[in-house]
Write a structure and sequence with these properties.
This protein has helices at 15-41, 67-103, 107-120. The protein is mainly alpha-helical and 147 residues long. Residues 105-147 are annotated as: Disordered.
Amino acid sequence: MPDSPGDGGQFTADLYELYEVAQNELRPLARLYGDFSSTVDETRSCNLDPAPVGGSVGRGQSALRSGSALVSLRDDVQYAFARSSENIETAAATLVEVTENYADTDDTTRADFESFKAEDFPTGTTPRPTPAPVYPDADSGNPLQNG
């Protein structure tokens, strides 16, 4: 096998650093985006499109009737946060799986990997996967709801 990085002869990434990025950077970021999605969802209780007073729209009131645009924007922002949270968590889970699988290639690699994990996670507790984020209601008409 070739010995130069990039030719397949060596694993050139620090295995534990990949694991640490997944656990200490990506998972908290995914949780943050999920929290943003939940916070945006809480705005549903706000009345963004009030009916005109007395059933008529007076001069200048049309600017106040932009609630439907705000609802659509709210749904789009909420969807973007929720989708980002899921994508970041997927990347974190993939990195964890890759590092665990690679550590199983030989006993020395596994022992070194476990030693590093024990130093940074002495109780054995690592960040849990991010809970599923809150998406906009399916009946909101959000055009981004595709997956």
